[in-house]
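Researcher: Quick one. two chains, 227 residues in total.
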Amino acid sequence: DGGITQSPKYLFRKEGQNVTLSCEQNLNHDAMYWYRQDPGQGLRLIYYSQIVNDFQKGDIAEGYSVSREKKESFPLTVTSAQKNPTAFYLCASSRTSGSSAYNEQFFGPGTRLTVL
Amino acid sequence: GENVEQHPSTLSVQEGDSAVIKCTYSDSASNYFPWYKQELGKRPQLIIDIRSNVGEKKDQRIAVTLNKTAKHFSLHITETQPEDSAVYFCAASNYGQNFVFGPGTRLSVLP
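Model:
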């Protein structure tokens, strides 16, 4: 399954609490991504990082924060500012190398976050 | 930015029939088009991809075609089986970066 893991699998949070979702990969991939998936919906990009210590906002970054201190790790924090955080969160990674590369994304197993 | 549309949103076929899912993209710079299959509660997994220098690619019962001029690409599944039932996502990217996904197609293969 590609060596990308997410934890926990299920997460419950009370309103007003911040929570951090873990994503780790041992594929030596440069790029990592966070997506949100709502029931019956596609994948919406939250944040992505193409190199350590650098990351960019995706389409729905408000209420989320990330860090990329290590190549292997890209944790996502869902803050209390996120109005409707209940969703399935998917992390992905891919190689980025040169202009001639076409690199697929490998997905983690996902974390299902429920706000109580 | 890139925008990817996908049709139909749901598709039901009889076992053994073919299924076709179509996607269009807006950015002519996109040159890599993967298709992912996602079973209920699981992660998306790549099933086939195509690069812009190729018009068609086939892998057993699945094939993908690309029309760069019209900016659309399609997934074809022949001899469908119940285990093909899942949600399928298309995506477009530029050299495998900055993926934009379609909204997905829920395929049901009826026995």
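The mean pLDDT of chain A is 90.
Researcher: Thanks, that's what I needed.
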